[in-house]
Each structure stands twice: as structure tokens, then as C-alpha cells.
Design brief:
177 residues; 3-stranded mixed beta sheet
Length: 177
């Protein structure tokens, strides 16, 4: 088992920093998101008040080009008492995630330990850079591009998904984890 936290830091290459508006558009931010959500956080250090429900129209009916994530809505809220808190309840909870081959659970071998353990499923840029440059005999990584040319419009999504699946299958066929 290899822990991502124990891996040496890798010198990172300079990242291209797009203008703020370009990044906001890439992540599907709207002017309303900035004025209603971000501005109160930045100016008053408090979250905007809101309701538990969603009155947002379906993304499929939008005249704009919504991000892929706006097509999915959570339809319930699970409330726990006390609140689930993996930081304060670390004895009984963990956000750790592992990647690597999953073998038969009913067998035991040294190959079952070939897992890369990450402290949480959402990675910081430096952790992602470590993962991309992992130097371990069991792991080999590949970065796949999930974008498509703007000129192809929404129709390009299907082709991009097919290309991405084919590239992922080819990488796995070459032993990439």
C-alpha cells in the first residue's frame, strides 16, 4: 500500500492561468452565482440564506449552455444527528479513498496490497500532480482530455465521451491504473 501523503513532492510546472471570467464559464458559474452566493461570502464572511428546495428550471430547457453538472439534482436531504463529521469523528469515519486493482476478496496475495491511498477523494493541485507523476512499479498513470472543440457544439459531447471511453480502455489495456 502506498500513501499519497508519503510520496515525495514533485516539482510542478507553471500552470496556465486563464482569466477569471474564462474559469467561471468553464465551471458553469453565472452572474447570479457571483452576486447571490460569492459576494456575501466575500464581503460578509457568511453564506447566503436559501431554501432546502430547488426552484431552478431543468437544465435541458435552458437557452444557455449549462454545464453537465446542472443536469443532475439531489432529490433528498439526509439529516444525521449528530452531524456526520469525518474530521472530529476520525476514530470511526474516514474520507480516505484508494485506487488500484481490485482483486478477488476471497483470495489473499501480495498483489492485493497494490493500492494507492489518498487522504480524501477531492485532491489539491499538488496532490493531483503527485498522482500524475507517481513513480512506483505498480502504478502507471495517464491523463485523459475530456474536452471537445467549441465549434462542435453540444453534438460534440457524444463523440467526446466515445473518444474518452476508447482512450481509457486502451490505457487500461496497456496496464495503466
Amino acid at each position: 500500500v502506498v500513501n499519497l501523503e508519503d510520496m515525495p513532492n514533485v516539482p510542478s510546472r507553471p500552470r496556465r492561468v486563464d482569466p477569471l471570467r474564462v474559469r467561471q464559464l468553464a465551471f458553469g458559474w453565472t452572474a447570479e452565482d457571483v452576486s447571490v452566493l460569492i459576494k456575501p461570502l466575500a464581503t460578509k464572511a457568511k453564506e447566503a440564506d436559501g431554501s432546502m428546495g430547488s426552484d431552478v428550471p431543468l437544465a435541458v430547457l435552458s437557452d444557455r449552455s449549462p454545464s453537465l453538472f446542472t443536469y443532475f439534482k439531489q432529490r433528498f436531504a439526509q439529516v444525521t444527528n449528530p452531524a456526520i463529521d469525518p474530521i472530529r469523528e476520525s476514530i470511526v469515519m474516514s474520507l480516505q479513498a484508494s485506487v488500484g486493482p481490485e482483486l478477488n476478496l476471497l483470495e489473499e496475495s501480495p498483489h492485493h496490497a497494490h493500492q494507492l491511498v489518498m487522504p480524501q477523494p477531492v485532491l489539491q493541485n499538488d496532490e493531483l500532480h503527485k498522482l500524475r507523476n507517481v513513480d512506483h512499479y505498480v502504478f502507471d498513470t495517464e491523463t485523459l482530455d475530456c474536452t471537445w472543440p467549441l465549434a462542435e457544439g453540444p453534438e460534440g459531447l457524444g463523440r467526446a465521451v466515445e473518444r474518452l471511453c476508447a482512450e481509457a480502455a486502451a490505457a487500461v489495456g496497456l496496464g495503466v491504473t
